[in-house]
Amino acid sequence: MRTPQVERAPGLPPEVTIYEVGPRDGLQNEQAIVSAATKVEFIRRLEAAGLQTIETTSFVPATWVPQMGDAEEVLGALGAAGTGPRRPALVPNQRGLDRAEELGLEAIAIFGSATDTFARKNLNRPSAEQYAMFEPVVTRAKADGMWVRAYVSMCFGDPWEGPVPIDQVVDVAERLMGLGCDELSLGDTIGVGTTGHVHRLLEALGRRRIGTDRVAVHFHDTYGQALANTMAALRDGVSVVDASTGGLGGCPYAKSATGNLATEDLVWALTGAGVQTGVDLEQLVATSLWMAAQLGRPSPSNVVRALAGSD
Ligand code: MG
After folding, report:
1. What is the distance between the alpha carbons of residues 145 and 142, in angstroms, rounded to a whole number?
2. Sign of dihedral through CA atoms 250, 252, 254, 256?
3. Is residue 62 part of a domain?
C-alpha cells in the first residue's frame, strides 16, 4: 500500500504548507560533512517532490557549525532555485545578513531562545540580550524587503531548566515578533511537549495578538509526540508545519533524540485526512532512501521504512 485511504478529518485546514528543514536543521546535526554537491542534489530532489518552502542553509560562521560552511557554494550552484521568498536561510547576525544579501536571498530566519540557559549556550548571551542581537538584522532585512521568520527554541521544556512557563515563551515570542518578523516558529527542541501544552501555548499567544496565521510549529519526535502535537496545532488553526525529510536531524542536547518530525510521516497523515500538501510521497521517500545511502544509515521515519519495504 503506497498511499493511505483518504477520509476527510474534521477540524483540519484544507491545505498545509510544509516548511522543509532537512537541508539545514537536518544536516547541521550530522557529524560527517556532507558535500555541497550532495546538498544541492538533495534540495533539487525535494523541490521536484513538490516541497515549496525549503530552508536551504545557514550563514552561521563555519567555526560554529562546520557542516554549514559551504552556504555560498550550495546557493551558488542552486542559482535562482536557491533564492526567492520561499527559500529562506538561517542568519545569526549582521555579517550573516551581509552574506545572504550578497547572494540575493529574499527570505531569512533568525533563531531565538525561550530560555536563558539555551540562549547562553546557543547564542552566547543571556536571553534578555538576544533582542539587541537580532534587532539590527531584522530591521535591515525588513527595510530591504525580505521575509523574516523567528524561531524560538525550547518552547515546551529545556534540558537544563526543566519546565518552561508558557508566559515566558509568550514574552520572548512577543519581543521577537515585535522586531518586525513575519512568522514565528515554535520549537519543541527536545520533543517533550504534549497536545494540551500545544493548545495552551497557542491560546496564550493569541491573547497577545500573535494569531495562528503567523505561527508555525516545529516538533521533534524524541518522545513520539511530534505528529500528535502537529495535528493538535492544525486543529487550533496553524497551517505551516516544519518537517525534515527522512526525519533528519536531532538535538545535540537530548541524547536519545530521534530528530525532527519526518516530512513523510506528516504527508502520510495529512494525505489520509484529506489535507493538501502538494507533495509526491513516493518521490519524497525515494529522496530519503537516497539521502540515507549518502549518510550510510537508515531513515528513522516510520513511513520511509514502511514504504521502502512495500511494493
Ligand atoms: Mg529541529
Report:
1. 5
2. positive
3. yes
Residue 86 in this model has a pLDDT that exceeds 60: yes
CA nearest neighbour of 210 among 178, 243, 248: 178
How close is the Cα of 270 to the center of ligand 1, in Å? 20
Q: How confident is the model over 8-23, as pLDDT tens digits?
A: 999 999 999 999 999 9
**Which residue in 71, 138, 210, 251 is the catalytic one?**
251
Tell me, in angstroms, the distance from the centre of ligand 1 to residue 157's CA.
14
Amino acid at 229: N
pLDDT on residue 107: 98
Residue 7 domain flag: no
Q: How far, in Å, from the CA of 43 to the mean position of ligand 1?
A: 17
Tell whether 270 is covered by a domain: yes
Question: Is residue 253 over pLDDT 60?
Answer: no
What are 43-59's pLDDT values in tens digits? 999 999 999 999 999 99
| CA dist 292 → 53, 146, 309 (Å) | 22, 34, 15
Ligand 1 centroid from CA 1, angstroms = 29
Is residue 181 part of the annotated active site? The answer reads no
pLDDT mean over 92-96: 96
Tell whether 5 is covered by a domain. no
